[in-house]
What does this fold into?
Amino acid sequence: MSTFGTQFMPQMSLATFADGTWSEPRLVPSESLQIHPAAHVLHYSSTCFEGLKAFRHEDGQVHIFRMMANVERMAQSSQLLGMPSVDEDLLATMIKEVVATFADEVPEPPSSMYIRPTHIGLDPHLGKAASPPSESMLYVLLSPVADYYSAGSGALTVLLEEEGMRCAPHMGVCKSGGNYASALSFSRLSQHGVAADKVLFCPEGVVQETGAANFIVIDGDEVITKALDNSFLHGVTRSSVLTIARDLGMTVTESEFTLTELFERIDKPATEAALSGTAAVLVPVGQFLYRDKEYAVGSGAPGPQVQKLRAALNAVQWGQSEDTHGWLTRI
Ligand SMILES: *Cc1c(COP(=O)(O)O)cnc(C)c1O
It folds into this structure.
């Protein structure tokens, strides 16, 4: 399969908001989109998106993982941007319809169909810099994707960044392109000239998240991660991993933790760390780069606890263990 997110299904589902109402969704070709060059999104970044996946089970049926959590987050992001409110039933219908249309194209695990709902502001009005759009477009793109991480790939090297901030603190929970753009000067690794795979933001010494994934530490039977606040994106994978950890009898500690505490934890031989997100699921972190020095996490190699949590989450997604939390929507 080609590079993540470069191959698309030929059609997407699209609806527009104008005069206070949403249009009926329709399937349209996904290779192009016509919008006015003055469209609000192109100038003032009125845009947000989601990322979720559909999986093929052994019996051939297709299931979407935690669809409503993603739909609700899309509505929340749109609200934070002052955009037209997303009709949650409409978006859920659009997702289910387009996945049903291309159900035959959903690959077998560990591959999946990545679903990318997108909401953009359309008003062709350059004077609206200080007001949100009143016209918008919602579309749902599909992209078949391979497993982002395979067990043999080893663990990631993560650069700890304490100077920069990923985004403005009040926008952390908004899944918006603007946040990605604002993180770029720090998350663009080539700029640092170091051999790191990702950048973990630690504003004022508090361990937060990377440009597109949440961060967890596993110290024996304890899973530690930053408690929810408005400064970072509340990942659906994060919430799923924590729920599964509790199901497996592990202790989950959600609290603010500093770089000092992080270094104390990773010094222990059995400590593990990982990044969580829909695309990558749960990827082990083997070492940190901090002020030109390298620090191994535990042994530095992918550890058994991250592997166990990842396998347990995949088992639900792939229909190999019972969906006790009602996370799957059958198409
Ligand atoms: C999407 C995203 C995540 C991961 O969220 P999931 O719901 O687990 O995919 C984490 N951080 C940021 C900044 C994100 O945009």
About this structure: The pocket of pyridoxal-5'-phosphate is lined by residues 51, 175, 209, 212-214, 233, 235-238, 276-278 (CB under 6 Å). The chain has a mean pLDDT of 95. The first helix runs from residue 40 to 44. The radius of gyration is 20 Å.
